[in-house]
Amino acid sequence: MSYFVLNQDARFANAVRPLGVMDAVRPEMMSPDHAHQLAAVNLHFKVAEATKVDYVDFIEHPVPFVSDRLKRVLEKFTPDTQFFAGAFTDLKRKHQEVYWLAVPPQIECLSEESEFGLDGSLRRLVIDDTRTGGSMFLQVGGLRERILLIHLALAEGLLRRDFNGIRLTRVR
């Protein structure tokens, strides 16, 4: 099986940036076991002011948000992913977009060939395909960082559509 790391495409310099997310969303809420707490959180955020704002389909930081279009595709491939509705509001332009905070299953699938720095940060990601259970969209468990992976079949499905703001990097 082949997997790809899902990242936000840095070429979109004017990508929407929600403000105050980490004031509302605690890091432990991003695990599937605690994600139910997100249902009680107000996920309505102002966006950073900019001369131009691109509403990309995937926002990686500080937590993964997906557009409504992308959510519909992910739901078809990954029914075990939890999504929580939020809204991004641009007060200056009087514009609002719906985004979904995505919490995919967290799976311990690191290979022993993965390499770590002295501080415990990941230097080289290698996954053990046999431990992913064939999941289409997942968080790599056992890391300090949040790394989202998508299966080749889902990656092909995304690439056939006109999504923007998505970068895929093949995992060894």
Automatic annotation (TrEMBL):
Single Gene Ontology BP annotation: proteolysis
Domain of life: Bacteria
Molecular function via GO: peptidase activity
Keyword list, A-Z: Hydrolase, Protease
Protein name: Serine protease
Originating species: Paenibacillus medicaginis
